[in-house]
């Protein structure tokens, strides 16, 4: 074969491949274009940034997004290097040490569309350098010492679609508590005046009087409840429900356990076998599988989509789509985050904006919908809607977190809808919405619900909505997250968060018609850094008296842990140094890390007992070194198992794998 043969490997492409490998060795999380080796879709530095990594990025033809993940050691010099990459469209400098002078370089990046400057010390002098960015349409200035001058002299000259202004309620320090943020001096009056003169811009203003998680919206993107339906190529009829379906978030019993009858597996001998894969839009929604169908939700540009596939083949059945208005203020993910629920031929979905949809599973036709934001006066959460709807008997239970003009007893913290009609059956005065989904259970003949709301745990009657007991449990900082679904065993409830108090096991006693006593069995010590578990969002698994799950607030400290349910004692910990999500099959745990690696672990309280790992590549084979991973960072969607099939979702892909116990 001659040297000039077109079949010869492109040496330039090989060079880019080597540069990509070196970037990953330097702990950069890179999402490259599968079609063009010279294009990087996004690069994130969650564990610090090496100057060499930024120099390597400048070799590529286009790098669309750079995020420093709040890196307090990122100074003007590193920012200048980042601005030298070609084609930069999104730059996240939130929490960094960038200064006013550093923004001079940023102001020259004429391709920039999104800029995040939250929790930095930049002032009006710095924002003045941004006045001539022609394409900038999203700008976040939360917790920056800027004044009304930035509004009148800078924002008015930009063509913004969304701007985020103001000061969060809690005082915060940055750079490892070396500096205290002075707070924004932009007034609500200036924000309102800007909104009047720029109606095309969504203005989100955070005032110190607002709640820690929900800033005020000077404007909101109007949402329609109507979805456009697009038929797919599949014409197969619905199957009968199977005992091992996975029809909702965390499975049939909301406990993260598959009802599959698979025997014990060994992935070192028999790794998962890919059945199908396909691209997906943005979002963190896990798939749900029932009656032969798989349903998930996604974001594509300014569109929200509900997608239904044949679970066995990945063949598209239908897509329902409508406008999407939510934007993640900190640049993480624009959602949707909620997982659909499938029940008796209907599917229920909850958008990031708070619109609840009920559709027919067989053809996607709408049955009913409710815009909870408008209906219940919801003040939107910082990260949008994160909880998933729960089916209980003939009710659909939904965390709403609304307000009421009447009194506290009628505030719709949780709302129960009729499954068939969408008519409100009752509301629970449960408090403000968190990102956690609800748990239902039966104790002493009573049908109960547990909600881990923003202020803490709420126990309520699942048939009437009456609040029976509360236990406060929340961090006292802005932006804190209560996100795990409560885990219940008998009359005991476990809940945990990662920003403050940590974990708690509480016990119910003295149940009467109107109340129940909540008594602490154990909890993490308040003035100690030692925590049994610090659960950010991934609900742990309870098996034979022990909890298994991810403990960490952020990636570098990520650990997989086993904790004694009765005492909170940590039985073992495995430092995986990233976040992960788990599900249970038999007496084994499937762990999915945020870099797209799947791991099989025996559920053993005495030791960490892995039985093989598998990182699916785009060709379906084991991509051991992450050269061409199928699941792109960050993989925050929990894995599910229905029958003998494992379904996983990454940043832009969805795949199914056959599990084998041969």
Q: What is this entry, summarized?
A:
The protein is mainly beta and 662 residues long. The protein is 9% helix and 34% strand. The protein is globular and about 65 Å long.
What does this structure look like?
With 662 residues, the protein is mainly β. The chain folds into 2 domains: 64-217, Leucine-rich repeat, LRR (right-handed beta-alpha superhelix) (Alpha-Beta Horseshoe); 228-658, Methylamine Dehydrogenase, Chain H, CATH 2.130.10. The longest helix is centred in the N-terminal third of the chain and has 15 residues, at 11-25. The protein is globular, with a radius of gyration of 25 Å. 50% of the residues are buried. Residues 1-9, 173-178 and 217-225 have low confidence and may be disordered.
By CATH reckoning, the class of the largest domain would read Mainly Beta
What is the mean predicted local confidence, pLDDT? 86
In CATH, the architecture of the largest domain is 7 Propeller
Q: Biggest sheet, in brief?
A: 10 strands, mixed
At the fourth CATH level, what is the homologous superfamily of the largest domain?
YVTN repeat-like/Quinoprotein amine dehydrogenase
The CATH topology of the largest domain is given as: Methylamine Dehydrogenase, Chain H
Which percent band covers the strand fraction? 25-35%
By helix and strand content, what is the structural category?
mainly beta
- The geometry reads as globular
Task: Work out the helix count.
Answer: 8
- Separation of termini? 44 Å
How many structural domains does the protein architecture include?
2
Query: Could you tell me the radius of gyration in angstroms?
Result: 25 Å
Can you tell me the residue ranges where pLDDT is under 50 for at least 5 consecutive residues? 1-9, 173-178, 217-225
| Range of helix content | under 10%
